[in-house]
Amino acid sequence: MYMSKKQLNVVFLIAGSEPLGSAGMQADIKAITACGGYAACALTGIVDEDTRRVKSVTPLPVELVVSQAESFLGDVGAQCVKTGVLPTAEIIDGVAGVLKRYPNVKKVIDPVIVDSNGVQLVSNESIDAYKEKLFPMATLITPNFREAEVLLKRKITNISEDIKELGQWGNSVIVKSMQSQIYAGRGMSAQDMLSDFLYNAETGEVREFRKRRIPTHNVNGTGDSFSSAIATYLAKGYDLDKAVEKGEEFIDKAIALGAEYEFGHGYGPVHPCFMEDKVIHERIYN
Predict the structure, then answer these.
(1) Is 177 helix (H, G, I), strand (E, B) or coil?
(2) Could you give the angle at which helices 240-258 and 24-34 cross, rounded to 10 degrees?
(3) In 3D, which of 171, 164, 235 has the Cα closest to residue 206?
(4) What is the C-alpha separation between 114 and 265, in angstroms, rounded?
(5) Is the pLDDT of residue 1 over 90?
(6) What whole-number distance in Å separates Cα of residue 182 and Cα of residue 65?
(7) Does the pLDDT of residue 23 top 80, yes or no?
(8) Given strand 106-109, what is the order of strands in its sheet?
(9) In the chain, N or C: fewer CB atoms in 10 Å?
(10) Strand partners, 208
(11) How many whole angstroms separate alpha carbon 47 and alpha carbon 89?
């Protein structure tokens, strides 16, 4: 008699690789694993960067990207798909062609279109392809505030209204790392706080997640790790609000622990493998 087997909580990544291990596919895999999921990946391109800047992005052939995704999803399947760097409009179009065949798979689309210095990384054609091809099938899109402004083609002036405009394709939205004004005059400056804003397309509600800014340069890959954590909790069956709550808790702890380490001369990584027991953590990692 065969025993029934357990099912893995699979998050399939469609993302790029970079040499630091702090962003892209590498950061995604670490975050998914730390949150209790199983990570697999179709590689889209190779990013050359150090801790100070992105030097180049080299796309892989569209046919190879598409074939990787078809190979995994057609055989193993996934509870959630999460995209990262999609370097060209052609790759975005090819990825969308695969994903539309899986309407019941949750999809977290992280539009990686601006670097940490605010420099646009992809063409305007790619931004249009995101809007036309991927956003309409997304469960959630996860732009940071700079990327949100590029998508809106203007500055954010009223986040509660502007975020709903980013949900015009039927998707939910979380806009990350907005400077919070609510604490100004309460013993700390607005610069001490950050807020993430979630628009849930199913409920029509906008939620704010406020957090104290952690003083650290080790924030490379924060967006990748955060969106991958959310994708993992969606894969595990949590509803969107709860998945985001748990993702917020995860990334806050990962940033706090990452702040304790030295890494390069610029922006280092967060540390996804935090542990509640500090003694155990120090025994393993130090």
Answers:
(1) strand
(2) 110
(3) 164
(4) 21
(5) no
(6) 44
(7) yes
(8) 54-59, 38-49, 10-17, 80-83, 106-109, 140-141, 172-179, 193-200, 205-212
(9) N
(10) 197
(11) 17
E strands of the chain, at which residues? 10-17, 38-49, 54-59, 80-83, 106-109, 140-141, 172-179, 193-200, 205-212
Give residue-wise pLDDT tens across range 92-114.
999 999 999 999 999 999 999 98
Mode of pairing for the β-strands spanning 172-179 and 193-200: antiparallel
234: Cα within 13 Å, side-chain hemisphere = 25
Contact 218, 258 (CB under 8 A): yes
- For residue 114, give both structure tokens: 């601006």
Element (H, E) at 93: helix 89-99
Mean pLDDT in residue range 80-87: 97
Rounded Cα distance, 224 and 47, in Å: 14
What is the CA 65 to chain-centroid distance, rounded? Answer: 19
Query: Residue 235 to residues 8, 43, 138, 245: CA-CA distances in angstroms?
Result: 9, 20, 14, 15
Report CA-CA distances (Å) from 223 to 3, 88, 103, 104, 175. Answer: 40, 20, 25, 25, 10
- The answer to whether the CB of 191 falls within 8 A of the CB of 213 is yes
Model confidence at 184, in pLDDT bands (50, 70, 90)?
A: very low
Question: Which CATH architecture describes the domain 10-137+211-285?
Answer: 3-Layer(aba) Sandwich (3.40)
Map tokens 């080790």 to a residue: 218
pTM above 0.85, yes or no: yes
CB contact set of 267 (below 8 Å; sequence gap of 6+): 22, 51, 52, 116, 217, 218, 219, 220
